[in-house]
Every structure is written in structure tokens, then in C-alpha cells.
Specification:
Shape: globular
Number of helices: 9
CATH superfamily of the largest domain: Ribosomal protein S4/S9, N-terminal domain
Number of strands: 5
Radius of gyration: 18 Å
Structural class: alpha+beta
CATH architecture of the largest domain: Orthogonal Bundle
Number of domains: 2
Strand content: 5-15%
Helix content: 40-55%
Oligomer: single chain
Strand order of the largest sheet: 2-1-3-5-4
CATH topology of the largest domain: Ribosomal Protein S4 Delta 41, Chain A, domain 1
Amino acid sequence: MARYRGPKGKIARRFKEPIFGPSKALDRRKYGPGQHGRGRKKISDYAVQLQEKQKAKYTYGVLEKQFRNTFDKAAKKKGVTGEVFLQMLESRLDNTVFRMGFAPTRRAARQLVSHKHVMVNGVVTNIASCMLKPGDEVTIREKSRNIELVNQNLGRGPRFSWLEVHADQHRGVFLNNPNREEIPETINEQLIVELYSK
């Protein structure tokens, strides 16, 4: 199970956005990390595209190979490739658990899934990259409902139109794939499409 385990503050400073949630490092130093963090004003088109891809990877907690495979699958589907790609990332099980408010971060959601606390359609699922389909029901297991992390988060946070959440029952339904306007991430998916189209 591969994932990024390095310093979160450095990543937030690199993209000048709180990728992993509120960042004290970004609040203190609003410039990039390293000796060239304050310099290098001019960057190439390729660098802009690469930066957008890296931002999306860190946001959704996916490493390069899986990210590229997901993009290739999105490119084969009907519709606008960039939008379909983001819909596929949003339909991942770990992301859905996070969006439903069962975990405070995507990292915590991934851990809940990998430790077998989550069921999909009544079946225990420990694969964070599992793609949900419209109508799939996500539930916290009966014996996992007293976990403090889950109960602290229940009912808090924003609601999303493509998810139906019943916090009192520790369950939610993935209603449909979200439209691009509904996805709150500040990712320019067109730059990722251009990068991979070279």
C-alpha cells in the first residue's frame, strides 16, 4: 500500500495551497520551500502542467502509476476527459468516506478503509482505490461505530449533492458522479490532459 509519507507543510508551501488541510507552515511562510523558494519567477508551460498534475496527485493521495492508469481509463470513456478523470478520483472509496464526513482527512479515511472499518453494499472492503458506482451504499461496520475519530466527525463539514449521508445510521449512498462545478477542488484538469497528451 503505497502513499506519500513525507512532510505535509512542504507540499502545502510548494503549491501555496493547504493541500492536506490547514497548514501552519504555509501561514508562516507563504513562499516555496528550499533555497529557490523565493526566486524563480518565470516557469515554463510544461512546469505549470506538471505542477497541476502533482497537486492533483497529492490532493487525492494517489501515486504516479495509479494516477496515470486512472487517467488512461478516463480517456477511453465517453465525455470530457478531464471531467471524467476528476469524477473517477472523486468516486474512490477513500475519498467518498472523507466526503461523507466519516473521517477528518483523506489520509484518515484511507486508514479506516484499510483497517476494514468500512463496508460497501454490506461487504467489508479494505481497498481504498475501489471505484464506487451510483447507488452504492457505504457503511461503517457495526463494531467500528464507537471509534472516536468517526464520532467526532459525524454530521460536521459540508454536504455534497452527489452523496446522501445518514450520520445517525453511520451510512451514506453514492448517488451519482458529480459535475465539475460541484467538485470543490481548485484543480485545472485541462492542464493535466495537455500534459498526458504530449
